[in-house]
Design a protein that fits this description.
Blueprint (H helix, E strand, L loop, with lengths): L1 E10 L5 H13 L4 E5 L2 E3 L23 E3 L4 H9 L3 E6 L13 H17 L7 E3 L7 H10 L2 E3 L13 H10 L3 E4 L2 E4 L12 H14 L2 E7 L11 H16 L3 E4 L1 H6 L5
Parallel strand pairs: 1-2, 1-10, 1-11, 2-5, 5-6, 6-7, 7-9
Antiparallel strand pairs: 3-4, 8-9
């Protein structure tokens, strides 16, 4: 059996409910879990390298506060609680650029703990899984995440950022060419890039996804809800690729869509 985890990043207190509903109702209808990487207390002044606001903030208005906890979006919180097919993953704390690329151990622990508390204030259980903004993690934050979470999902691992005590396991992972590895009770998952992205050719995207899924036992498919609604406008062609992916996954007898929680609790073993 092959397994797929669908990870959607950047849900926050400005995310329109209708965007998630439009994208993921077909997946929920098939019983396919959707893992939402939720920003606990989003900074609404975060910008891209070109100075433009981040895409996940397109619903921001002039009077929007600079920090918004997820609980302030009551409609979204109710929607997520009413649809248990959505699984909540902790996505940073504020989602600032380098917030987890730091050597301050106390600050890393504080941000992780505060993020979990903000999610708890919205009625969500303690997440089993962590995703760092922009996949930026230091040695110090890697150790902190391993203390607080059962699963870390990121793009890649670099030796210069891996704690020295982890080097033997990291070396074995590299020798065996495994995308995923484990430190004590924490699973460390990498993914094959954001295959579902508007920056990739739409005509090639579906075939790339199929190749990734059939080439390994566990594949983390990463996407971002706001990319389908850039500036609030739906990209119908891109949405069709996402839904085609869901239909294909549902039709494969040897592929099962799972949640990060399934790995964390041991109900699925890879």
């Amino acid at each position: 059996m092959r397994y797929v985890i669908l990870r959607d990043d950047d849900t926050n207190a400005l995310t329109p409910v209708e965007c998630l509903e439009r994208l993921y109702r077909p997946f929920l209808r098939h019983g396919q879990p959707v893992n939402l990487a939720v920003i606990p207390r989003v900074r609404t002044d975060v910008t891209r390298a070109d100075g433009a606001p981040e895409g996940f903030l397109f619903a921001r208005e002039k009077e929007t506060p600079s920090l918004l906890p997820i609980a302030t979006h009551g409609e979204l919180v109710r929607y997520l609680h009413d649809n248990p097919g959505f699984h909540i993953v902790q996505h940073g704390y504020h989602h600032s650029l380098n917030e987890f690329d730091s050597d301050n151990a106390d600050d890393m622990d504080h941000r992780l703990e505060q993020g979990t508390q903000v999610l708890a204030a919205a009625g969500f259980a303690k997440p089993t899984t962590f995703v760092a903004p922009y996949d930026k993690l230091s040695r110090t934050s890697l150790k902190a995440v391993a203390r607080h979470f059962r699963v870390l999902s990121t793009g890649w691992f670099e030796l210069r950022r891996v704690p020295a005590l982890w080097w033997p396991q990291y070396a074995l992972k590299k020798i065996l060419k495994h995308p995923h590895w484990r430190i004590h009770n924490t699973m460390l998952l990498s993914h094959p890039g954001c295959l579902l992205s508007y920056t990739r050719p739409y005509a090639e995207m579906f075939d790339e996804i199929k190749r990734a899924v059939t080439s390994q036992q566990l594949t983390v498919l990463v996407t971002h809800w706001w990319e389908y609604f850039r500036d609030g406008n739906p990209d119908e062609d891109f949405i069709r690729v996402l839904h085609r992916t869901g239909e294909w996954l549902a039709a494969q007898r040897d592929v099962k869509v799972i949640s990060f929680d399934d790995l964390a609790t041991g109900s699925i073993r890879t």
